[in-house]
From TrEMBL:
The gene is Ruvbl2. It is an enzyme of class 3 (hydrolase). Its main location: other. This is RuvB-like helicase. Residues 1-62 form the RuvB-like AAA-lid domain. It comes from Donacobius atricapilla.
Length: 93
């Protein structure tokens, strides 16, 4: 994928990205490549490094971390308030 997007990456960054892919999904890891490339370009780096991968990993959640976040903060979301005030989400008593 890096070759296709013309992204240069350090060996350490490849290792971190590989581990992320193994622990999450290949799709998620591939999506981080583009974002990490943009972060590296913004800092005027010649190649994507571990810090660039860490940065985008902290900004974009994979499915598992997204689900965990939703469970932890579900009480703060609007749909919960609607359910409390109307009985159910769809407004039925």
């Amino acid at each position: 994928r890096c070759e296709e997007e013309d992204v240069e990456m350090t060996e350490d960054a490849y290792a971190v990205l590989t581990r992320i892919g193994l622990e999450t999904s290949l799709r998620y890891a591939m999506q981080l490549i583009t974002a990490a490339s943009l972060v590296a370009r913004k800092r005027k780096g010649a190649e994507v490094g571990v810090e660039d991968i860490k940065r985008v990993y902290s900004l974009f959640l994979d499915e598992s971390r997204s689900t965990q976040y939703m469970r932890e903060y579900q009480e703060a979301f609007l749909f919960n308030e609607l359910r409390e005030h109307r009985g159910t989400f769809w407004g039925a008593p």
